[in-house]
Amino acid sequence: MKHTITQLLLIPLLAAALVLAPALQARAAWGEFTISDEIEAGRKFDAYVRSSMPLVEDTEIAGYVESVVRRLVNNIPPQPFRFTSTVIQNGSMNAFAIPGGYVYVFTGLILNLQTEDQMAAVLAHELAHVTEHHVAKRMAEMQLASIGAIAGTLAGAFLGIAGGGSNMANLGGALVMGSQAGAAAAYLQYTQENEREADHQGLNYLAAAGYNPLAMAETFDIMQKQRWYMSNDKIPSYLSTHPALPDRVAYIKGRVARMPQDFLKRKADNTAFLRAQTLVRAKLQATDVALAWYTNKGELNPLETMGLGIVQTRLNRTGDAERSFQKALAALPNDSLVLREAGIYYFKQGNFQKSQPLLQKALVLKPGDALTLFYNARLLGESKQYDAAIVSMRQVLKELPEDPEVRYHMGRLLGESGDQFGGHLNLAYCYELQRNRKQAEFHLEKARSFARDADQKKQVEDFENFRREREELRQ
After folding, report:
1. Can you give the residue range of the structural domain that contains 305?
2. Are 235 and 292 members of one domain?
3. How many CA atoms lie within 13 Å of 71's alpha carbon, on the beta-carbon side?
4. How would you class 96 by CB atoms within 10 Å of its CB: exposed for 0-12, middle for 13-18, buried for 19 or more?
5. Are strands 84-88 and 102-106 parallel, antiparallel or unpaired?
6. Which of 9, 11, 60, 404 gives a 20 to 30 Å CA spacing to 52?
């Protein structure tokens, strides 16, 4: 079943409605919707997304997006909450932001833009929706029309938003309340005034952060061109929301024309953007589509050659992949990303002798990279250097505490080193994060049986609280 991207973007609004219903009911008589409500809405929705959606944790991608958000936020008026960003694996060319400062970027957006200026333009627009409290104001209005009924009916109507059993469908299903709400959808759409205001303020934020303000118009142009190649369910909401796109582009260009001319000469360094884009294409795009892109590209630069090697690895074309990685390494022998990906390739092939120096050099060049640390820890574990492996994996766990794969390998390392309590507890987290309740319960009971001191018993309690919070989010 096909659904529009506008319906897809109803998810955060519906979620905000549901998680805020109790607070709003307490304030309904006064029509209040406080900053605390916004923060709580964002926190709960973010927790739900993290427990239900396919997230991209690679710091070369997620860290890059966060850096652009941070640059923008550092140049906007002070806000009562901290902005954070999350990258979701989804091919739609979109992004959205919710109350409390939570920003979500789909990998499809990274893949289809051309420059960091354009990425910043989309994010600036979304930040403006939050700073102007557009969703928050609408939530307050919805409470007057029975927020629970509205959210329940619309969630049911848009159930299975991404189709095909995807996590988007799971998210929509979790919002169903079985209530009825008539024609309440109007409450869940940005108004013309909202969009004009987001364009206006977003352009201010973009220019203040040192980006080229023309990038906002460029982004609209890219989306307009993309729509001819998209089915209706892939068209970004920016293109279907009034005022009409040509009017918005004209407004932006008119404002830019009145800005200092040196603003139009600005050009962001696209190095980090292109690295993130390469990883999205090579690791997350369908292999046939990605391979076709590299095949049709013609001559590839070293970064693209590395990307081709990743795709060839996914296709089990190991000989071709090794040649691509060797070519990329010859051109960029001191690039931490190329070293990391080549090291991962050799690790997966079981060639630990070739993997080790590549991963170690990558760590020297970029010590905090979580993925490099992860494979370095596994490499150390293969040679039974458990103490060093556990130290490395703990660094990864600090950055990615809810990554089931990290929990799994931490559990294995601890168990093999003789720490049965830590091993089983981490495996309990792994299976809980994967929603495998039977296995999670098995390892929890094992961990409980090995708990000897107060600290270990407290860790068991922490896990139980973690599981309880996740269950509440799914109810």
Report:
1. 286-367
2. no
3. 18
4. buried
5. parallel
6. 60
